[in-house]
Amino acid sequence: MLRILGKIRKNLLGEGKVTRYLLYALGEILLVVIGILIALKINNWNQSNVDVDIETKYLTNILSDLDEQLTYIEIQKTYEKRFMEAAIPEINYYNTNNKFRVDTTFFANLNVLDARKTFITTDPSFTDLISSGNIRLIKNDILKKKIISYYQDLELSEKIIQNNNIFIVDQQFGNVVKDIGYYFFDTDNFYLKDVEELDPEVYKAATQLNHFNSHLALTSSNILRESEKQLLLMNALNQRANIAIAHYQRAIILEEKTNDLVVEIKKELGD
Fold first, then answer.
1. By C-alpha distance, which of 107, 110, 113 is closest to 83?
2. CA-based nearest residue to 247, from 163, 184, 188
3. Angle between helix 141-164 and 18-97 (nearest 10)
4. Contact by Cβ (8 Å): 182, 223
5. Reduced to 3 states, what is the DSSP secondary structure of residue 140?
6. Packing angle, helices 124-131 and 18-97, rounded to 10
């Protein structure tokens, strides 16, 4: 092809047909430009297809992450509800009787409340999307903003729950309940008979432990006769209950936002 075009140019120049040669040269340039444009168009089309495939993969992976996140949110709700159910009866009992019921249930509830649940987030696909700069591949700008906003809120929730757990549950509540000598034991000893039949030594140790626990219960009861200690514990229980309620409410909001984002992404994917 190039040899033929070169021969044509040579003939035109040899015949002195400069005008026709210039027109021919212009046409040849146009052909080259058109060829380049077609090649660029094909390349862009191929790249566009690649970008669409990558975008689809990211959105699909985010869907998988969101499904896992819903599981973690449900677990968080379960724990926070358990904390509320442990705190509120003790608060109500004190408000009604102006004293605490220092029994097995009381100490069992304090044992529950002295624990806390770390909120787990799962965002590997979003993290990769941002760090790689591939966030630009999400063509739907509204969806892109919703994804970014969702994970910012998720990160904020993680930090809030973590800080509340450290500074309020671990430090403030934990110090108060430890100050009254809380513990957990079974005063009915309903399990000791089975233990005695299986292992007399274990039975003996368990009996001694319960005897020691009884002394601890008496000590805690004496401590809680002090109005100052009652006030401290009541404030701690109120604060602990409020934290559990706040975490539970935040989990519900996150659950709604997660489900909404799942719907939006599925709509974008055509599911």
1. 113
2. 163
3. 30
4. no
5. coil
6. 140
Q: How far apart are CA 266 and CA 242, in angstroms?
A: 36
Read off the pTM: 0.75
- Domains of the chain, residue spans: 69-180+224-269
Q: Which two tokens stand for residue 83?
A: 């904390």
CB 253 within 8 A of CB 44: no
CB distance 138 to 169 below 8 Å: no
- Which residue has 């404030």 as its token pair? 235
Show pLDDT as tens, one digit a residue, over the chain (271 residues).
545 545 555 554 455 555 554 555 566 667 666 767 666 665 555 555 567 889 999 999 999 999 999 999 999 999 999 999 999 999 999 999 999 988 878 988 998 999 999 999 999 999 999 999 999 999 999 999 999 999 999 999 999 999 999 999 999 999 998 888 665 444 444 444 554 455 666 555 555 555 545 666 777 888 888 999 999 999 999 999 999 999 999 999 999 999 999 999 999 998 7
SS3 257: helix
Read off the DSSP letter of residue 17. Answer: -
How far is 61 from 57, CA to CA, in rounded Å? Answer: 6
CB 182 within 8 A of CB 232: no
Nearest-angstrom CA–CA distance, 205 and 193? 13
Rounded-to-integer distance, Cα 13 and Cα 256, Å: 77
Length of the chain: 271
Cα Rg of the chain, angstroms: 36
**Residue among 240, 110, 222 nearest 177 (CA):** 110
Q: For 227-232, which contacts have Cβ atoms below 8 Å and span 24 or more sequence positions?
A: 229/179, 229/180, 230/94, 230/99, 230/100, 232/176, 232/179
